[in-house]
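Support request from a user on the community tier.

User writes: "When I paste my structure tokens into the form, the page sometimes reloads and wipes my input. The last time it worked, I copied everything first. Here is what I submitted, just in case something in the input itself triggers the reload:"
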């Protein structure tokens, strides 16, 4: 069994429990259901966009504890002030130390920044959870879902006016895309082995539909990485650990974007 299988099995149990505690109807009472979303697709294509999507993540299966003292409102607000194009908030508690409250807090602190709910989505119920806690977009990991499941989850997202980011890591997974997908993310990290290779982005990027907004995810740590991927046609760059492993992730992000703009 791979770590991804393990995470997904745990997620199925969590979702079954959550459904017993909070019904879909109850989730719909959240005031966040009434807000209009901030489009990541739009901010990534805007003139002068940094393209940086900064992630809030305190631990991970590949690195263990990354940051013990970070505070989500402080970090996410600093990310926005630094000029990010979007923010990614981990909501998986078991493996990534995340929480729904982190998402809701980041939302309230950053009313105009696009925010991704980063989790392992397997059930339409989770799309409602994302909406109820203030997300603008959801992540669908192609390695975990069939083409049919991806379509069903994409349809639910569209019903709730959420954007859909699909993560791919292999050529075969590109076949699972559908017309409701807003953004494709190429994960440089193999979720089965944790190995990171930027060439994954370059190779799969060339196989994606030309007009598809695309981002490169994981293992990015230098301005050179970003320039390289920009030349390969990428519009966005998802960075977590590089900022979160520092004492002041917001400041690290600010300095990075300043360097990028030089
Ligand atoms: O911390 P990094 O190497 O900069 O990576 C960020 C992000 O890409 C990574 O956290 C990630 C990519 N896809 C995921 C799917 C689930 C959880 C986490 C992820």
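"...and here is what came back when it finally went through:"
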């Amino acid at each position: 069994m791979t770590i991804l299988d393990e995470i997904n099995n745990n997620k199925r149990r969590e979702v079954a429990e959550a459904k017993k505690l909070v019904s879909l109807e109850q989730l719909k009472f959240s005031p966040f259901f009434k807000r209009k979303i901030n489009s990541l697709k739009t901010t990534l294509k805007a003139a002068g966009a940094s393209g940086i999507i900064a992630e809030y993540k305190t631990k991970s299966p590949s690195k263990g504890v990354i940051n013990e003292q970070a505070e989500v409102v402080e970090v996410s607000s600093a990310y926005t002030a630094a000029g990010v194009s979007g923010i990614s908030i981990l909501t998986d508690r078991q493996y990534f130390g995340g929480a729904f409250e982190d998402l809701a807090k980041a939302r309230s602190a950053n009313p105009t920044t696009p925010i991704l709910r980063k989790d392992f989505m397997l059930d339409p119920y989770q799309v409602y959870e994302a909406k109820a806690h203030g997300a603008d977009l959801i992540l669908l990991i192609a390695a975990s879902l069939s083409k049919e499941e991806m379509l069903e989850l994409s349809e639910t997202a569209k019903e709730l006016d959420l954007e859909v980011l699909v993560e791919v890591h292999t050529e075969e997974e590109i076949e699972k895309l559908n017309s409701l997908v807003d953004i494709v993310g190429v994960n440089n990290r193999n979720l089965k082995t944790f190995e990171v290779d930027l060439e994954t982005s370059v190779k799969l990027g060339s196989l994606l539909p030309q007009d598809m907004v695309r981002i490169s995810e994981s293992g990015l740590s230098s301005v050179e990485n970003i320039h390289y991927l920009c030349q390969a046609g990428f519009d966005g760059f998802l960075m977590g650990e590089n900022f979160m492993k520092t004492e002041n992730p917001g400041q690290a992000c600010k300095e990075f974007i300043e360097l990028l703009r030089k």
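Agent notes: The reload is a front-end session timeout and is unrelated to the input. DSSP finds twelve helices and ten strands in the chain. The chain has one domain: 3-261. Escalated to web team.
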